[in-house]
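[09:14] KT: can someone run the structure on this one? pasting the chain below
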Amino acid sequence: MKIFIIGLVIFSYLFWGIVAETSASSLFRDTSRIIYCQDEECSLDEWIEVVKTDINDLETERTASQYVQDLVKYLLTFITIIAVLYIIYAWFKILTSAGNDDEVKKSKTMITSVLVWIVIIWLAYAIVIWIIGVITN
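[09:31] RB: done, structure tokens below
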């Protein structure tokens, strides 16, 4: 049980640290509005020019590695959700074991293994992101 609590604390610390990092970076984004009409006259050509210059450049500044990082982040989130469902399944097996010590032991091992692997994959992700940040700066 101690291993479970320690694993849960470490996982929570890492997960909320990553969430806080991504939300903090979103706080400093430029949220100014695009002014479509500079003067009284608003024509369709002016609007098209504004869209070409101001909106189309938003996605062209990202590199392929940033898209891969986003894909990996979504994949790790999906794996974490599956792992949590696996832990819930193991707890259900403990509750329905009807005193079978072998079944309880297998379920506890399953929970511990899942928690360890969740921590390992998120630590690996954090280390790789840190290394990428060091290399790019």
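[09:33] KT: thanks! Residues 2-23+64-136 form one domain.
[09:34] RB: yep, looked fine to me
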